[in-house]
Amino acid sequence: MKLLGRDIPARELIARIEERLRLRGLPTSEPVEVPAEGVEPRVEPLTFNLHALEENADATRALPLHTHRGGAGQLVLVAKWAFRKSCQVFINEALGRQRVFNGHVRDSYAQLSAEVIRLRREVEQLRARAGGKPVPAAADGELKRVDEAAARQGGTEQRVSSPDVPAKAAGSTKPDAAAEVRPAESAPRAKQATSRVPSTKEQARRPRESAPAAKPPPTSEVAPRTSTAQGPERSGGRASKKPSSPGKTARRAKQGAAGQNASEAKSTTSSEPVLPRPRHARGGAGEPTHSQAKTPRVRPETEGAASRTTGNTGPRSRKPDSRPRGRRK
Amino acid sequence: MAIHQLIPSFVPGDATGQSALHLQLLLRRMGHAGGLYADEVGAGLEGLASPASALRPEPGDLVLYHHGIASPLSSRFMHLPCRRGVVFHNISPARFYTGLPLEDALVAGRAQLAAMADFADVAIGVSDFNAAELRVAGFRDVHTVPLFIEPGRFSRANADPKMLQRLSGPGPVLLGVSRVMPHKRFEDLLALHREVVRLRPQARLLMVGGYEPGSRYFRALKREAKGLSGVHFLGRLSHAELVAAYRSASVFVSMSEHEGFGVPLIEAMAAEVPVMAYAAAAVPETLGGAGVAFDQKRFAFLAELAVDLSEDLSLREPVLAGQTRRLEHFSAASAQVALSSALKGLLPPPAPRPRKAPKRPRVGLVVQRYGEVTGGAEKLAAQMAEHLAPHWDITVLTTCAKNHLSWDNTFPPGPDEVNGIRVLRFPTTRMRNIRGFNGLSRQVFDKPNERLREEQWVAEQGPLCPGLLKHLATTRDAYDGYLFFTYLYAPTVWGLPLVADRALLVPTTHDESPIRFGLYADVFERPRALLCLTPEELTIIEKYFPNHARTRVVGVGVDRPAADGARFREKHGIRKHYLLYVGRQEPGKGVGELLEYHQALKERFADAPDLVLAGDSNMDLSGEGVHYLGRIDEQDKHDALAGALAVVVPSRYESLSLLTLEAFAQGTPVLVNGRSDVLVGQVERSGAGRTYTDLDSFIQGLREVGDERAPMGKKGLEYVKKQGWPQVVAAYREEMERILEENRQ
Hints:
The structure holds 2 protein chains of 2 kinds. Chain A is mostly helical. Chain A has 12 helices and 3 strands. Among the domains of chain A are: about 1-40, no CATH class; about 45-60 and about 95-190 and about 215-270, no CATH class. Chain B has 4 domains: about 5-145, 3-Layer(aba) Sandwich (Rossmann fold); about 150-330, Glycogen Phosphorylase B (Rossmann fold); about 360-555, Glycogen Phosphorylase B (Rossmann fold); about 565-720, Rossmann fold. Classes of the chains: A mainly alpha, B alpha/beta. At the A-B interface, strand 1, helix 1, strand 2, helix 2 and helix 5 of A face helix 3, helix 4, strand 13, helix 11 and helix 12 of B. Chain B: Keywords: Transferase. Chain B: This is Glycosyltransferase family 4 protein.
């Protein structure tokens, strides 16, 4: 036990109190392992956001049952559960398009974040080639940050490429592709900045607690997609060779069209068109039909002008030369 | 360059909002204007903060975003087309909330923090601990700017008496203050209390902080507390009640396992309560050797320590003395030094000081209204502008408002000219809801308040004129000095600190409820000099602001145009003797009481004089023998003054009363409200009137004034002859010269 304070006679006070505790027959001071407190670890935003999008893409999936209310709160929980049990099929129907939309958002983000990582790497390489020439401040800072992340990862492959290091040295220490820092691919969701080892007491007190760093990193889900999205040069990387888990594959199959869009994003290379093909142009080899994908069928697009707010076309327009409709006399 | 602040939530009781308000205060003292913008603005705080969607910074501006738990504002922040800074208030570790809905928001908050790192020009942690987390998150230009408190607001005088009474009783009393959240470890407080009760069965535990009554954590705490005596969950308290809780406690205890700063620790220091705190995260840094920090939660040991701290004076007093010393690190002045250092690279360099004295000093005269308006202070401002115009290059900086109750924009914005004086008008952005304002006034007057409530009152008082504040902050080089009129209104409260080093203030101080607000300290303590109108005003200032700026009684000059009372009677068809009041006809000026006394007079005496009222009205002015004339011109006014039996001044809040002096100038005695020290002083010094405090003294005073009208009128005339414009103008010029000379040096 330690007492910290400039205005107290700490030792004398501890001794006095320990003596009183001894007289009361209470246990006196024993050496106790105190948890090392450090600052919280950095949470890599690109990885975190992708993981969060993955987690929440399915709008039809229920949030965990939870309430802040006492008493009546339990009834609310039961009502929620019953509603889900009886109405899930309608929820799926109502939120089908939302699920597709979320899938697009997730896939777009995956593609963009992969692009950011690729560009960071390119800037890094250019900087190494430039031989210490000044680079724009933002890029310099970006590199420094990436280098710091690498330094935090530690290990024998730790990179030394801060702006102060000569270009030759930086070039000579260029690691292989697999060892490079790829936050969205290999970095865990959160990295511990200072090692915080929970004491046995603390573990006993909080058996179910686990720091974000201790969570299974989402890289098993993220890595294959982002790595292939970076082009053919990365296709031989370790991450891209990792096979998907069976559970993951099953979920992909369920996700249907959304998952299919993801695979489209995966196969996008610099030589391919950036935008996916229009929906009505799909259905080629290997692409599931809407019934297979279990997603709502989309109304065919027409040539009418898109609305300003949604971009969708209005009610189906008549063909210019179509016959008058309605009952013929 | 404006420095705006972006906050997720601006509601009462929110530490981030309070921090933003404090930063705004410091920024104003540093000469930077800027607004608060929040995603969620609490009810009634719309005058202080605008919706985040309204933020439109200019490229040269700086936006400081206060970050904590995940907020959509972080995405907005990264795309702001200006310079950007992050103020980090820390995020509770997610490990305390595993499996709860909050967990995601906490981790997302950290991800957002890291994502913002490359988009911030400056990063500010409110503690070194937070600054370290910012560095880990990838920020580069990281500084520590500690939070601060105003110790005066935690004095015993600021404690709610009812709460003090309610919490009085046997001790020792342990106190915990924070939101009731799992990582704050209220269960440890209960465990400690259980041990203390073994030593002192009468011991009590006060737990203060907002909680959700149905939350699982709170229910568990309640269950745990059931078997314990002396446990009180007080919930969220008002400021005065919180001070009472601090002042009722023997020891403040924090068992929290994560604090990014720990505001309650320093609040307890300010309330002179010994602090015991678990040394987690930033707690040792905040304590800085003061109080007692411990590294293990051995409750039997800590209970002994708590009893010692509350009962053993040889231990308690040195701890309190050390805490008082530590408190100096959390003063506004210390925080301002740190903030200046943090923003050093982003601020424009100060303009070089002028070497030569200007031939005609360029002076900005700041007043809430100008032009065709009724009001003593506004009229004085106009008179001063016109008398000083030959000596100074004056620009009147004012609003477009004409009506002081609504502040609606009547005059067009931009340059204007009134009686040869250049005027620059800025539009007000908010109309006043007078009913809501009066309701708020009833809530905050004559009781201790936190700064937020006082700022809210000033915002509701208005006029809100961000354009005027921005002009003051951005055109400092265009003026050699500033002359502010009236202490009360928002343009002075928020504008004066921007240019305080070159400002003179004519405060027109009244002994009224708002002057007790601590927020007015900047107004009375920061300008270069206070120019008072009477010695009584000086007494009021000394009473409420002992550390006020240099003062000088300058008085006012009084014009004595030729006047004819008969002409006035003829024009308005008034046959009988009459009492006269000219000014704003509103209850706050005591007009209601005057009407009441006059009606009683009419009922008792058949020859009672009529009552003539002139000026803008906001109330019903009917009654037997009452003549309401509306606004009258200057000549008409002087004619009315000359013909009156006596001039009545019913207001109890006066800093000068120009009307009294103008009545003296026309040889007419006065009958004034005896509850105003200023009016009593004017009457006693001149011998030209009587005072009243109730109906009887009103009747008696009127009788005496009627009997001795001529000799009293003569005394009044002699009194005003001593006060001339040349002396007044010379005093103003002398004070401005002093500012110019000091700035050159």
